[in-house]
Amino acid sequence: MQKSLEIKKITMSSALVAIAFVIQLLVRFVLPMLNMPFGGNFLGIAMLPLVLIGYLYGLKYGILAGFVFGIFGIILSPSGYIIGWSFLLDYLIGFTAYGLTGFFVGKLSSVKWTIIGISLAGFVRYLSVSFAGVFFWSETINSDAWVFSFIEYNLGYTLSTTIVTILLAILIRKRIVDLNQQFLGLSAISN
Fold first, then answer.
1. Per-residue pLDDT tens digits for 15-25
2. Residue 35: what are its φ and ψ, rounded to 5°?
3. Are 48 and 167 in contact (CB under 8 A)?
4. What is the mean pLDDT of residues 23-33?
5. Please, is 142 exposed, middle or buried when counting C-beta atoms within 10 Å of its C-beta (0-12, 13-18, 19+)?
6. What are the residues whose beta carbons fall under 8 Å from the beta carbon of 50, sequence distance 6 or more?
7. Is the dihedral of CA 110, 156, 33, 74 positive or negative?
């Protein structure tokens, strides 16, 4: 039973990472006006499937899913978007941060914990990509790297992504919990 449950969690996590990636590509190409020039998107709804993994299956699955999503992002990133070690902060740590909702596993039913978990994940991503901007992108801008990276560039799109993700998660959270219980074959998941 335990092995079967783990296989189901891996399967669903993989499916949610794939869904996140498809959403990312669709938004990037269908709504290009929402894209930032060096990466990022004001409608980063790909965050939603990634944070759900942490809420549903815990930190291990959430972190791994974010890491895998970051690897895909590196592989398919337009050339010139990854400078030096920026892949670590922009992609690996940045997207792995979405898995921090795993600290709140089983708490997706609660609006309070949904907001707190997604806010934490969004904030850590914001810090990660902002430090990447300071350390790796500062040579490409004509203003103070700290102000540009933390306020002018990354604050807007990471904040909008976090807010949109919170709103969507609140709207669908109960249905996602029910579907997950059915998928796993469980009668109840502790909250």
1. 999 999 999 88
2. -80, 145
3. no
4. 85
5. exposed
6. 16, 17, 20, 62, 65, 66, 69, 95, 98, 99
7. negative
Band of residue 31 on the pLDDT scale cut at 50, 70, 90? confident
In order of their start, the domains of the chain are 2-184 (1.10.1760.20)
Q: Supply φ then ψ for residue 39, to 5 degrees.
A: 110, 155
Residue 188: which pLDDT band, with cuts at 50, 70 and 90?
very low
**Structure tokens, 17:** 């990472």
Residue type for 9, please?
K
CA 116, distance to chain mean position in Å, is 14
> Which residue's entry shows tokens 């904040």?
159
Nearest CA to 39 out of 12, 79, 69 is that of 79
pTM: 0.89
Kindly write down the DSSP assignment for every residue of 31-94, as one continuous string: -GGGB-TTS-BTT-TTHHHHHHHHHHH-HHHHHHHHHHHHHHHHHHSPTTS--TTHIIIIIIIH
Q: Is the Cβ–Cβ distance between 51 and 65 less than 8 Å? A: no
Please report, as a single letter, which amino acid is at residue 58: G
| Paired tokens of 132 | 């990447």
